[in-house]
């Protein structure tokens, strides 16, 4: 039973334009059917959504150690399941800007260190309304110093002791410092809202998400049913089942054999083999994973900006994307977040220029340079990228020794050791990339980029209320990184998903981990 | 009979010592690896404060001998400890993983014994003739194909091209017997190589036995060819085959990692793979105990069978 209540209204516009009153009305009216304010954007050529059916989705999982505790989410499978059962106050759009979800609106004070957040009218699966107390409880649980929840670091700007509920659906967040990008905090990975007093996450999880819990066996399957009272309108599907298959070939085979309708995380070679052959659909989520080499800017030879610039010019990005990513991606321009909000897309695309690279190295007195490149099989394409770059560097007279590291401790090992390493990152707002990796006190500053004036620019951006002015500050920071930063960002890998032909409404413009990625409430079976 | 009893007691004691050694060895080796569960879990967010917090929550900050002692004490009480990652009892992991692996192993053995012995005896009786040459070359060829390749080939042809069988057991969970069609391919892949090695062993043993003086004597007495084959020659060929079978069952039970991964079967192999990937030490240790025990018990059983079959040959420990 499909009921198009708000034809032609795009979700972005919908969320920005609708106030509390109309939302209340919608919540009342919306119970009868599904409002599909967002589907026109994504369902191009997919026809009208149909209600009903069960969709089975295969993910790589965490085996018998899996849990439905949304705050413990660390894998894609965890995030997808948490998204079905729970909501966050905000989530990332395709350009990684924060989009309101459970929060209906947010309003900062003049100095950007107090934010008044108003919740929309939503209910948990057991019928209780989502209240300010639930939000504060969830955030306090995440921030619990005795726990190590992933979102804890993201919530760090909030002074939770001073923050309080201003009503049933109003919360005043007090921040430790001005934070213009505070909505990003609300959208942080794993910052899900659970009901106050929730404890039994694996047997009886209660959330406010589009699906309610049916059953769960760790490492095998989790099945959920449609939540008819979902604030954004009930999902089209009756049932959703997550199954776990860690081997990529098992996921593909299950999809080809009709055992599942959605297979997450496929190899580029698989995608090429089946794309356009008519058996399954291949969806490529662009700009999902940044691929880079990371130079430590605080030690030789990379403490000399000329050497870093020379390395920027050594890389043949096309060859790296084709070789290390099997062509499934786009080339980078040494800046994080291609296509995201605030991305400096006006800077010229960097090309390989071996002559200039040699000249720069000569000027730096670094001819016949030898460096060690740390890599590991921790991520797809790492060892291939290292090999390709070694050959490219050889043409500029630089000897690169590739060193294979341990898979388990790679990220911790490269944080402080070595000089050059392979690096990658999932999608996150440019602001988060900067605050986590490029400030003097950043916890994972792998390039050792520590500049007081750069930190100051970040503070300035965070205390700039006007979005255009803020964008200008981000532009300055990115130009600096482009000329002399430590990240040689050569590409952005696609995230590849396979679906059966009957699955409609899967959004392609959604980098992994954004709102529309693995979003099964807007998907239907034709 | 008391000789047998003391033999069993000695073997059991030895087995317990072996299992204990395996566990301590696994513990020591994992300790020696770079990084720990906290580092592995932190992944690409290796924030030192977060790693420290994870370490503390998991109580990894205590010295290794203390953790080993705690765990060993629990083991005496039948408590395998709790998983570092999920906090669930390790016993549950093992119990859950055991079912599918046991089903696979039992079915494979049920197929393996008649097929292996049948082919071996047939080849031996037709030694040098066309049937023998056929059996010998096909078993050699199939034996040379790794499980992964064979599995992929069978899935592509039988499941995806012809559509006769489901390609994986995805979503069926532990209740594999309710979906017998999903078991066909895994069992075929699992059985293929042991059938080959077993039939070749049986063939070789049978040829030796058929050429032996006691079989010649039996023939001279006019015993029928079938009786000579099955009751005179085969038992002599059984000893090496039984040992081989025990090793095969052991291999099957200890989680056939490749096949379980390929067909998405949540058995012990999958549990082991995940636990190793996440450095979930209590689970790895629990599995080491189980695998050690299974190996010891199976070998003990084989030795007893061998003692019964070929008492004069003595028992190779």
From TrEMBL, chain A:
Q: Residue spans with biased composition (Basic and acidic residues)?
A: 38-49
Where's the Solute-binding protein family domain? 99-428
Q: Which domain of life is it from?
A: Bacteria
List this protein's GO terms for biological process: peptide transport
Q: Which GO terms of the cellular component aspect does the record hold?
A: ATP-binding cassette (ABC) transporter complex; periplasmic space
**Region described as Disordered:** 34-55
Among the GO molecular function terms of this UniProt record, one is: peptide transmembrane transporter activity
Protein name as annotated: ABC transporter substrate-binding protein
Q: Which organism is it from?
A: Streptomyces antibioticus
From TrEMBL, chain B:
What keywords appear on the UniProt entry?
Cell membrane, Membrane, Transmembrane, Transmembrane helix, Transport
Q: Which organism is it from?
A: Streptomyces antibioticus
Localization annotation:
Cell membrane
Q: Name one GO cellular component term.
A: plasma membrane
All residue ranges annotated as the ABC transmembrane type-1 domain in the record: 98-306
Does the keyword field hold Membrane?
A: yes
Q: Which SUPFAM superfamilies match?
A: MetI-like (SSF161098)
Task: Cite the InterPro entries for this sequence.
Answer: BPD_transp_1_N, MetI-like, MetI-like_sf
PROSITE patterns for this protein: ABC_TM1
This one is known as: ABC transporter permease
Q: Where are the transmembrane segments?
A: 12-30, 102-122, 134-164, 176-196, 251-277, 283-302
Q: What kind of membrane protein is this, topologically?
A: Multi-pass membrane protein
């Amino acid at each position: 039973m499909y009921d198009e209540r708000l034809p032609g209204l795009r979700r972005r516009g919908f969320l920005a334009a609708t106030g509390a009153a109309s939302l209340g009305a919608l919540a009342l009216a919306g119970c009868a059917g599904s409002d599909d304010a967002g589907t026109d954007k994504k369902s191009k050529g997919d026809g009208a959504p149909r209600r009903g059916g069960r969709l089975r989705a295969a993910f790589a999982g965490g085996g018998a150690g899996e849990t439905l505790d949304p705050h413990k989410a660390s894998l894609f499978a965890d995030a997808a399941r948490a998204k079905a059962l729970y909501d966050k106050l905000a989530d990332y759009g395709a350009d990684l800007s924060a989009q309101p979800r459970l929060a209906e609106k947010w309003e900062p004070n003049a100095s950007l260190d107090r934010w008044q957040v108003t919740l929309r009218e939503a209910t948990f699966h057991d019928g209780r309304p989502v209240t300010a107390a639930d939000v504060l409880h969830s955030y306090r649980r995440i921030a619990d110093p005795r726990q190590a929840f992933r979102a804890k670091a993201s919530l760090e700007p909030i002074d939770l002791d001073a923050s309080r509920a201003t009503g049933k659906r109003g919360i005043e967040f007090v921040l430790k410092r001005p934070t213009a990008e505070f909505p990003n905090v609300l959208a942080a990975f794993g910052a899900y809202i659970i009901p106050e007093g929730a404890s039994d996450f694996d047997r009886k999880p209660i959330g406010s998400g589009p699906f309610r819990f049916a059953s769960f066996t760790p490492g095998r399957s989790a099945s959920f049913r449609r939540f008819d009272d979902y604030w954004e309108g009930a999902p089209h599907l009756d049932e959703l089942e997550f199954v776990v298959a860690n081997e990529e070939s098992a996921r593909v085979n299950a999809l080809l054999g009709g055992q599942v309708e959605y297979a997450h995380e496929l190899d580029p070679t698989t995608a090429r083999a089946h794309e356009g052959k008519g058996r399954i659909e291949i969806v490529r989520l662009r700009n999902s994973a940044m691929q880079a080499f990371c130079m430590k800017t605080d030690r030789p030879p990379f403490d000399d900006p000329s050497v870093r610039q020379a390395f920027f010019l050594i890389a043949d990005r096309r060859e790296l994307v084709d070789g290390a990513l099997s062509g499934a991606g786009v080339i980078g321009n040494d800046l994080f977040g291609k296509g995201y909000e605030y991305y400096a897309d006006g800077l010229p695309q960097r090309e390989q220029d071996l002559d200039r690279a040699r000249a720069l190295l000569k000027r730096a007195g670094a001819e016949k340079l030898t460096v060690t490149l740390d890599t590991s099989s921790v991520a797809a394409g790492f060892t291939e990228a290292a090999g390709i770059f070694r050959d490219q560097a050889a043409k500029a007279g630089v000897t690169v020794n590739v060193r294979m590291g341990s898979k388990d401790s790679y990220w911790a090992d490269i944080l402080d050791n070595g000089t050059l390493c392979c690096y990658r990152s999932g999608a996150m707002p440019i602001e988060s990339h900067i605050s986590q990796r490029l400030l003097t006190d950043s916890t994972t500053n792998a390039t050792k980029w520590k500049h007081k004036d750069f930190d100051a620019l970040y503070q300035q951006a965070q205390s700039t209320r006007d979005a255009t002015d803020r964008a200008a500050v981000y532009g300055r920071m990115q130009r600096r990184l482009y000329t002399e930063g430590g990240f040689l960002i050569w590409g952005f890998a696609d995230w590849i998903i396979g679906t059966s032909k009957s699955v409609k409404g899967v959004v392609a413009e959604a980098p992994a981990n954004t709102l529309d990625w693995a979003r099964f409430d807007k998907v239907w079976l034709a | 009979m008391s000789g047998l009893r003391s033999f069993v007691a000695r073997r059991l004691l030895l087995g317990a010592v072996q299992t204990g050694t395996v566990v301590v060895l696994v513990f020591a080796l994992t300790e020696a690896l770079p990084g720990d569960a906290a580092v592995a879990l932190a992944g690409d967010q290796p924030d030192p404060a977060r790693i420290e917090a994870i370490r503390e929550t998991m109580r990894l900050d205590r010295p290794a001998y203390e953790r080993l002692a705690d765990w060993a004490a629990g083991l005496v009480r039948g408590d395998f400890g709790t998983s570092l990652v999920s906090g669930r009892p390790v016993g549950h992991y093992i119990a859950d993983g055991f079912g599918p692996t046991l089903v696979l192993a039992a079915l494979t053995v049920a197929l393996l014994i008649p097929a292996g012995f049948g082919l071996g005896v047939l080849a031996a009786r037709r030694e040098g003739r066309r049937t023998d040459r056929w059996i010998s070359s096909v078993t050699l060829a199939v034996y040379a194909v790794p499980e992964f390749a064979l599995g992929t080939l069978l899935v592509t042809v039988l499941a995806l091209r012809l559509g006769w069988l489901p390609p994986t057991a995805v979503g069926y969970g532990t209740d594999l017997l309710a979906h017998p069609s999903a078991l066909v391919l895994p069992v075929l892949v699992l059985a293929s190589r042991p059938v080959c090695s077993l039939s070749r062993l049986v063939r070789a043993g049978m040829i030796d036995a058929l050429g032996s003086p006691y079989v010649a004597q039996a023939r001279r007495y006019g015993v029928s060819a079938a009786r000579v084959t099955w009751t005179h020659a085969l038992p002599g060929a059984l000893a090496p085959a039984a040992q081989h079978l025990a090793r095969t069952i052991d291999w099957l039970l200890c989680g056939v990692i490749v096949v379980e991964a390929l067909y998405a079967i949540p058995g012990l192999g999958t549990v082991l793979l995940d636990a190793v990937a996440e450095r979930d030490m209590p689970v790895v240790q629990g599995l080491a105990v189980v695998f050690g025990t299974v190996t010891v018990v199976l070998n003990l059983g084989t030795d007893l069978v061998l003692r019964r079959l070929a008492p004069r040959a003595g028992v190779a420990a």
